[in-house]
Amino acid sequence: MSLSIGIVGLPNVGKSSLFNLLTQNCVPAENYPFCTIDPNVGCVKVPDARLDVLAKMSASAKIIPTMVEFTDIAGIVKDAHKGEGLGNKFLANIREVDAICQVVRIFNDPNVIHVSNRVNPKEDKEIIDLELIMADLDTVTKKLDSSKKSSRSGLSKEAEAEMKLLESIKAALDSGRFASSVPVIDDLRPFAKQLNLFTAKPMMVLLNVDESTQNTSIDLPNIRPEDICRINVKLEFELQALSPEEQKEYLKELGMTERGLDRFIQKAYSILELLTFLTTGADETRAWTVRKGTKAPQAAGVIHTDFEKSFIRAEVISYDDFVSCGGESGARDQGKLRVEGKDYVMADGDICDFKVGV
Ligand SMILES: Nc1nc2c(ncn2[C@@H]2O[C@H](COP(=O)(O)OP(=O)(O)OP(=O)(O)O)[C@@H](O)[C@H]2O)c(=O)[nH]1
Ligand SMILES: [Mg+2]
């Protein structure tokens, strides 16, 4: 499963630099022979420390991480929703992605022109937000108008509920809030999804910092603080050029324990509402991706299409149990290996052995 995150922001904030950083960091895996699918789309491996631990325990010949796709989108300008700049192309590109990463500049550099000639992350984010909100408002208003027309001949209960939802979304957008701030009941989820609104997509912010702004506290609209990730893109480029040992040394000097880039990829992966399950053995230790809520047979189907139909049961050990029991046989002895059936809902970190029929 390949889900994609669109890198969105004002011109010159570091979107393409981030994209290049991500794709250069990528080692081709056998299921994705090319990292860069086209100049703007790249597959990136998701760092997961659990893989190294499991590979060591199982003496695996190789490690295969799971992947996530990033799309580098052209810089948005004010009035994009009216077709300014690359307006329409830009919006069409964002429409296709599953989640949005807004890059916001908070680095100072007189050599890099800022479109408004000043560094102001809050206002920059507001410009982008407004474009997305205006484009969504257009979609919602059109939809409301057509529902109102058909309502003259009477509305079904279902259509009435849909119209109410549209009205709540419109009210939110009118007051500068995102569609994602409007609660949607389960029955209306398919309808809401099919609207494909920009501001209903999962969203995160990457603050492109420098040494002087890396700890600057900042309050951004329409985003939870935990969905903001700080990276110094320029510094990450410098790190990229170093060997893994030199990187460790440099990070230590800077008082950091890991690269910001790894944290960023993990965060981007997490907003997609996915979970990782694992398989491990002498051949390989591997991470697999499914949407949250996926049941065991469908998860087995990710490994091999036929496995979904021929699924019999799953033998599951949670990652923590696997490690603390010293591997599969220890977990089995201590009653930590669970036998799960076709209604089992997968959990993150499940180590699975799927039993299938022929
Ligand atoms: N000082 C500094 N410069 C940066 C940083 N990130 C990017 N730049 C520079 O900013 C300029 C623009 O970077 P890009 O990555 O091309 O910006 P972009 O957001 O893709 O711009 P558009 O594609 O035009 O929308 C380049 O000269 C980069 O080298 C950073 O963290 N610090
Ligand atoms: Mg660019």
Characteristic key phrases:
single chain, 358 residues, alpha/beta, Ubiquitin-like (UB roll), 7-stranded mixed β-sheet, 3-stranded mixed β-sheet, flat, binds guanosine-5'-triphosphate, binds magnesium ion
What this model shows, in words?
This protein is α/β, with parallel strands linked by helices. The chain has a domain of 64 residues: Beta-grasp domain (Ubiquitin-like (UB roll)). It is built from 13 helices and 13 strands. The strands form three sheets. It has a seven-stranded mixed beta sheet with strand order 2-3-5-1-6-7-8, sandwiched between helices. A hairpin with a 2-residue loop joins strand 2 and strand 3. Helix 4 runs antiparallel to helix 5. The chain is flat. The chain binds guanosine-5'-triphosphate (GTP) and magnesium ion. Magnesium ion binds next to helix 1. The site of magnesium ion has 3 residues, from helix 1.
Q: What's the gist of this structure?
A:
The chain is of the alpha/beta class and 358 residues long. It has 13 helices and 13 strands.
